[in-house]
């Protein structure tokens, strides 16, 4: 089950959701007045993982349905509504207002680019899209999503979006065999092969149950076909390390982000390093090392695999260090308007 590793809480100082421009005079009498839906939340920069200082825009989808009827058809309220930061405030067009007796559902998405996203749709409270990974790992977008559901009750408290990363982050740490004194190696090339590159993503707010509102959601689902299209990512680090030292090959300012997926035997790492000008190529599979985390990479988690160079003719990966991205970025961030 997907674990929620949120790195930022986005507050929607909320209030209503029936488009004012579509309300009739009689409907307007029923609307709660003076309660404008306001958003707080940052343009994601690929030069680093998204932080609270980068999050400058997101899009909201939402609908409402009668709280007293189980057969009513939801009415669309927000459809890819852009929310942007202007003069320190979050703004959007066509102000919305709460309507009494309604239950509202929201999903939100923040992405620096939609070039790799197709067939995005919002239906029956669920956001769905197809994703194809780009050939260059440096252009993979750090996508965040959030969800919220509530019955409208007075007073209209803020709608809180808990944004979380939906990609997995993979890193490698190279070390020099300590048994070889005064050794200097140059990391010339690393290639990560066999990564599934296409999938469908979906997100839906959790049911209310006995609660009147929730920012939880039904487990976000990445669906990969049985015979996925696979891709390889290559980097030429040019890093030099010596005995007793180590180096990160995909640090946070040059992160390797991939679709969450099972770590299959198809996934292989090939690395070329030089010692005294003589190149050596070694390779290894991540399958065995991934047994400690269920042979799978999950959304919103960072996996760092260490290995030692200089003695073996193949790569042996140590048990990976696993943590949520918020631990890398220094904690949770709460933004209020």
Could you explain how this protein is built, in words?
Strands 1, 3, 4, 5, 6, 8, 11, 12, 16 and 28 form a ten-stranded mixed sheet that branches. Residues 1-29, 40-48 and 329-337 have low confidence and may be disordered. The longest helix is centred in the N-terminal third of the chain and has 6 residues, at 25-30. A hairpin with a 2-residue loop joins strand 5 and strand 6. The protein has 337 residues and is mainly β. It is built from two helices and 28 strands. It has helices spanning 25-30, 325-329, and strands at residues 6-13, 18-19, 38-39, 57-66, 75-86, 89-91, 96-97, 102-110, 117-123, 126-132, 144-151, 159-165, 168-176, 184-196, 198-205, 213-214, 217-223, 230-235, 239-242, 246-248, 256-258, 261-262, 268-275, 278-285, 296-297, 301-309, 321-324, 333-335.
Order of helices and strands: EEHEEEEEEEEEEEEEEEEEEEEEEEEEHE
* Main pleated sheet: 10 strands, mixed
As a whole number of angstroms, the C-alpha radius of gyration is 23 Å
As a percent range, the share of helical residues equals under 10%
Roughly what is the average pLDDT, rounded to an integer? 81
- Discrete helix count: 2
Structural class, from helix and strand content? mainly beta
Tell me what portion of residues adopts beta-strand conformation. over 45%
Query: Whole-Å distance between the termini?
Result: 33 Å
**What is the global morphology?**
elongated
Number of E-type strands: 28
As residue ranges, the low-confidence spans are: 1-29, 40-48, 329-337
């Amino acid at each position: 089950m997907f674990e929620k590793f949120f790195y930022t809480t986005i507050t929607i100082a909320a209030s209503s959701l029936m488009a004012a421009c579509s309300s009739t005079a009689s409907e307007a009498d029923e609307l709660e007045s003076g309660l404008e839906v306001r958003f707080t939340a940052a343009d994601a920069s690929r030069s680093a993982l998204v932080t609270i200082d980068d999050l400058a825009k997101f899009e909201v989808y939402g609908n409402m349905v009668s709280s007293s009827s189980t057969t009513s058809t939801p009415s669309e309220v927000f459809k890819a509504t852009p929310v942007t930061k202007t003069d320190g405030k979050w703004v959007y067009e066509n102000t919305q207002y709460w309507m009494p007796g309604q239950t509202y559902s929201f999903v939100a998405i923040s992405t620096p680019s939609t070039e790799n996203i197709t067939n995005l749709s919002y239906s029956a409270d669920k956001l769905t899209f197809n994703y194809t990974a780009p050939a260059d790992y440096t252009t993979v977008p750090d996508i965040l999503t959030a969800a919220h559901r509530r019955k409208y009750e007075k007073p209209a408290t803020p709608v809180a979006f808990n944004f979380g990363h939906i990609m997995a982050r993979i890193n490698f740490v190279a070390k020099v065999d300590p048994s070889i004194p005064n050794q200097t190696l140059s990391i010339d090339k690393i290639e990560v092969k066999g990564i599934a590159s296409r999938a469908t993503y979906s997100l839906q707010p959790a049911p209310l149950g006995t609660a009147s509102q929730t920012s939880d959601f039904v487990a976000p689902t990445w669906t990969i076909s049985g015979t996925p299209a696979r891709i390889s990512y290559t980097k030429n680090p040019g890093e030099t390390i010596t005995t007793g030292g180590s180096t990160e090959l995909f640090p946070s300012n040059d992160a390797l982000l991939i679709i969450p997926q099972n770590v299959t035997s198809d996934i292989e790492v090939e690395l070329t390093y030089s010692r005294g000008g003589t190149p050596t190529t070694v390779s290894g599979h991540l399958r065995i090392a991934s047994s400690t985390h269920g042979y799978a990479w999950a959304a919103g988690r960072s996996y760092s695999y260490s290995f030692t160079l200089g003695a073996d003719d193949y790569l042996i990966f140590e048990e990976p260090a696993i943590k949520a991205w918020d631990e890398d970025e220094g904690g949770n961030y709460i933004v209020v308007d």
